[in-house]
Design brief:
With 730 residues, the protein is of the alpha/beta class. It contains 19 helices and 30 strands. The strands form eight sheets. A six-stranded mixed beta sheet has the order 1-2-3-4-6-9. Strand 7 and strand 8 (244-245) form a beta hairpin. Helix 1 (3-17) runs antiparallel to helix 2, helix 5 (121-137) packs parallel to helix 6 and helix 15 (433-440) packs parallel to helix 18. The longest helix has 18 residues, at 313-330. The radius of gyration is 26 Å and the shape is globular. The two termini are 46 Å apart. Residues 1-22 form the signal peptide. One of its GO terms (molecular function) is hydrolase activity. This is Glycoside hydrolase family 3 C-terminal domain-containing protein. It comes from Asticcacaulis machinosus.
Length: 730
């Protein structure tokens, strides 16, 4: 064993012998390792490269010999046994952009919104663990995952990756996804820190928001997820926040993240988001994919800055120690990934479970669903439903089946076609809804039409006993939607088909909320989101009642864009690149359902909404006060079928101040007539407002109202309790 390895082992044994915690031991070990490094070795550890063939190479920046072609690579230090970092995009599965690793497939989870719609933290945990297990089996040790940005605008191209509009829901689901991933001895990130809530010209977009509003919304989601999930890396965003780039934002990174929250891990940049060497002073610990930035800021420029004292040597040491701590605490230092076989069939069932619980039954007039298997003629209408289910684009897109040729996306702007050439070819997962529906109705004549001819689709609809029509909205990183309508004339198609045949079910495969001008004439509507590796089977199971739908909306569905805080064209949408502009989040912390409640507006479908084939009743509400609210109530399946329910608890009054905030939820599986008592205690910050002056959280003494309901607008039982006045740390 090398002398340095012996020294490290002796330090660890000594610390454990004195009953030091594993976390303290990891920090002490990181410090010892860092002290043994040369300046050049320290610089190498804070420098990431993009190890793919299309990145130009120079003699001073050669292709790393041991790198896996993927999102990122950071060299190790062999003489000290410090491992390299092998990084992969992995929001919804291990990615393989442009098939850079020929034939390397992975299991795709449903979209983040679909997972959030399950209201089931265990499924988020299982999904994170599944992705991480595949990543380790492929040789990766860092997952670029864990997006918890709030979905403030339905047009945001990355909404589908995130966990919805509510800080508590997003924080909990994000935390469990991260915990699941890191249970597999891997480093997981949380991203994109912070207020990175739109994609339009994202490198030049300045998010303008007050400190209290930011703390009570976007930052609270991150704070909850970091406290509960303990991600070992934070990825900062592309955007500016209140005038400073997120990756060089002293307030966000030093004051909030590392100061107020005591964050121990390291901050990595998003790909191409570093603008200067002094970002190191402002809290950034590692430059990722340096080739995408204007300069290798954390290379020679940082070395010179340390040598001349403009960046203190202690700051570089802190940067390196944080990275080493993450390697040790995660387990990748002592348990490096080993390339092994992957049971894709088993992992696909993890994806399928999330898809089944994430599908939301939005409308079901006349009980048209579940479909009777005795229907004689069923018409399926939808682009590519004979091939698979739609997937979102960008860095989260997963290659699920290398044997299936990529399918083009008609109607994309030319800029998108050029910008995302490597992603556009792989937008469907090979899980055909048409095939799955035919398998569940073997006695029926199941017809198919791709929907590209309105007249032909209408003609066929008139001959069918019932129609199932798919509405598709493809969303992607770096590109926001111009509006809320389904593209390529699909709204007109759905309206014409439902007029021709009133027994029509609409299945939405979308990246978020869409307008539904045909909603009143359509008896049944299902939100399937992007449903992943076994989405076709999951959709069919819900349609035929083999799975009782239990998804609930993690985002409010507005009637139209006029109901949202930004009813006009998105800020920056018509501006050329490299022109900075402000996005003023004047709604502050009143995101989504809070905005609707504050303004007395009625959405198309509210946050938390989701129907079932059975019914659930709530009763026996008990509320206790003190330092926070403790709530218990009984949930009863009052219907005829077994099903899963997601009861939601909302704060409705805070010492005389009317408001609406989700403070808790659960997921229960109940047989007909079965009941169960739910008990939960609210995080006190959800009862508070943030005081910028002190600073910290402030809870006013008085009576606090609580309601339990099926959604943000369907509140069934109400109660209250008294809370004492108090202050909490930031």
């Amino acid at each position: 064993m090398p002398r340095t390895a012996c020294l490290t082992a002796l330090v660890l044994i000594s610390l454990l012998a004195t009953n030091v915690s594993a976390d303290e031991a990891a920090k002490a070990r990181a410090i010892k390792l860092e002290q043994a490094l040369t300046l050049d070795e320290r610089i190498s550890i804070v420098n990431g490269t993009w190890p793919v063939p299309w990145v130009p190479r120079t003699p001073d920046n050669p292709q790393p010999a041991d790198a896996i072609p993927a999102a990122g690579y950071v060299p190790g230090v062999p003489r000290l046994n410090i491992p390299a970092l092998f990084e992969t995009d992995a929001s919804l599965g291990v990615t393989n952009p442009s098939d850079v690793r020929p034939g390397d497939i992975a299991t795709a989870l449903p979209s983040g919104l679909a997972i959030a719609a399950t209201f089931n933290p265990k499924l988020a945990y299982d999904g994170g663990a599944m992705i991480a297990s595949e990543a380790r089996a492929k040789g990766f040790n860092v997952l670029l995952t864990g997006g918890v940005n709030l979905t403030r605008d339905p047009r945001n191209g990355r909404n589908f990756e995130y966990f919805g509009e509510d800080p508590w829901l997003a924080g909990i689901m994000g935390a469990e996804s991260i915990r699941g991933a890191q249970s597999q001895k891997i480093i997981a990130t949380i991203k994109h820190f912070a207020v990175n809530d739109a994609e339009t010209n994202r490198d030049w977009s300045n998010s303008v928001i007050g400190e209290a509003a930011m703390r009570e919304s976007d930052l609270l989601a991150f704070q909850i997820a970091i406290e509960r999930g303990n991600p070992l890396s934070v990825m900062c965003g592309y955007n500016l926040v209140n005038g400073d780039y997120a990756c060089g934002n002293d307030h966000l990174l030093n004051t909030v993240l590392k100061g107020d929250w005591g964050y121990k891990g390291f901050v990595m940049s998003d790909w191409g988001s570093v603008k200067a060497t002094d970002f190191a002073l402002k809290g950034l610990d590692q430059q990722s994919a340096k080739e995408l930035d204007g300069a290798f800021w954390f290379g020679e420029p940082l070395k010179k800055a340390v040598e001349d004292g403009s960046v203190p040597a202690t700051r570089l040491s802190d940067m390196v120690q944080r990275i080493l701590y993450a390697q040790i605490a995660s387990g990748i230092f002592d348990n490096p990934p080993q390339k092994t076989a992957i049971d894709y069939a088993k992992n696909a069932e993890v994806s399928r479970a999330a898809a089944e619980e994430g599908i939301v039954l939005l409308k079901n007039d006349g009980g048209i669903l579940p479909l009777a298997k005795t229907a004689q003629t069923i018409l399926i209408i939808g682009d590519y439903v004979e091939k698979g289910v739609l997937s979102g684009g960008g860095s989260s897109n997963v290659t699920g089946d290398s044997g299936t040729p990529g399918l083009p996306q008609p109607g994309l702007p030319m800029s998108a076609e050029g910008q995302f050439a490597q992603y556009v070819k792989e937008q469907y997962h090979a899980s055909s809804p048409l095939t799955a529906i035919r398998a569940r109705a073997p006695q029926a004549k199941v017809l198919f039409d791709n929907g590209r001819s309105l007249n032909e689709a209408v003609r066929k609809a008139k001959t069918a006993d019932l129609v199932i029509i798919f509405g598709n909205q493809w969303m992607t990183e770096s590109l926001d939607a111009p509006d809320m309508y389904l593209p390529r004339g699909q709204d007109a198609l759905i309206a014409a088909v439902t007029k021709a045949n009133p027994k029509t079910v609409v299945i939405l495969q979308t990246g978020g909320p869409v307008a539904m001008p045909w909603v009143d004439q359509t008896p049944a509507i299902v939100s399937a989101w992007y449903s992943g590796a076994r989405g076709g089977e999951a959709i069919a199971d819900v349609l035929f009642g083999e799975v009782n739908p239990s998804g609930h909306l993690p985002m409010t569905f507005p009637r139209d864009i006029a109901q949202t805080p930004r009813p006009a064209v998105l800020d920056g949408f018509d501006l050329p690149a490299k022109v900075q502009f402000d996005v003023t989040y004047h709604e502050g912390s009143d995101v989504g359902y809070r905005w609707f409640s504050k303004n007395g507006a009625t959405p198309l479908f509210p946050f938390g909404h989701g129907l079932s084939y059975t019914t659930f009743d709530y009763s026996d509400l008990k509320v206790k006060g003190g330092s926070t609210l403790s709530v218990s109530f009984k949930v009863t399946n009052s219907g005829k079928f077994a099903g899963k329910d997601a009861p939601q608890v909302y704060l409705t009054d805070a010492a005389g101040r009317k408001l609406l905030r989700l403070i808790g939820f659960d997921k229960l599986d109940l047989k007909p007539g079965e009941h169960r008592t739910v008990s939960l205690t609210a995080d006190a910050r959800l009862l508070a407002h943030y005081d910028e002056a002190k600073p910290g959280w402030v809870i006013g003494g008085g009576s606090y109202g609580v309601a339990v309901g099926h959604s943000a607008t369907d509140l069934v039982v109400k109660g209250s309790a008294r809370i004492k006045s108090q202050r909490l740390k930031p």
